[in-house]
Amino acid sequence: MLRWDHASDPFPETVLMDQVRFQEMQQEAERLALLCSVLLIVYTTTGDAISGLPGLMETLKNTVSVILADMHTPSYSAQEALATIGEKLCVELSQCLSQHGYSPFSADRKNTLRSQISATIHPDNTVRKLMGKSSDAYDCVVREFGSDRDLLSSSDSRVQSYFLASLEFSQHKTPPSLPGGLAPVGRELKELAVRFSRLVIFNKLVFSPFYQKILHKILTGGGESP
Question: What superkingdom heads the lineage (predicted)?
Fold first, then answer.
């Protein structure tokens, strides 16, 4: 439901009444995944210089969130938005480094940051794979985003894993841990996961008796129901 292509694929009939709700959740999950990807890029590019600075993470997060707020509207241009994010974050990081007595944010590092942020526009972007080896920048991100060093190769798959774990939690009462790398959007993800789980569980309660009969016939060799 959170990967559905609403533009080309008919939505499943049994959850058609909730299509708008599922689509809104899908869009929110995509926004949070992109937001977290940008923040990861910032911390890998800037490294130890900004590690642990109070309030910086929230400031950067708010800046990116404002620009991504309309990312699913018809007038939204991903290319322009990501370029704007790159420019604004370079300014904020330069000011932050200067205020804390660090070396200036060089032109090369600014260009690297801008290009890596802009590259997240591509569906197959491998920004998470930059975290594959131990380094000062990598350790900086681990401190900022969580202790789990097994960061997945895409924020989308990590978000999907968290939602699946949330559905399991609804059955086994064991709260899922937030995957490493998603701490900056942890509160938003948890709230979204609760909404998603409630909607899935509701539809399961309504329609599972019908599907159970069909599946029982198939699994027991009784033939498919028409």
Answer: Eukaryota
> Residue 2 falls within a domain, yes or no?
no
Tell me how far apart the terminal alpha carbons of the chain are, to the nearest angstrom: 24
If the chain, 226 residues long, is cut into consecutive pieces of 10 residues, what is the mean pLDDT of each piece?
Answer: 87 89 91 87 82 85 94 91 94 88 86 92 63 37 45 54 81 72 87 91 87 87 57
The DSSP call for residue 8 is: T
Domain range for 64 is 17-219
Question: b/e map of 104-125 (b: 16 or more CB within 10 Å)?
Answer: ebeeebbeebbebbbebeeeeb
Instruction: Output the CA torsion sign for 31, 35, 40, 42.
Output: positive
Residue 225 lies in a domain: no
Q: How many domains does the chain have?
A: 1
Structure tokens at 24: 């809104």
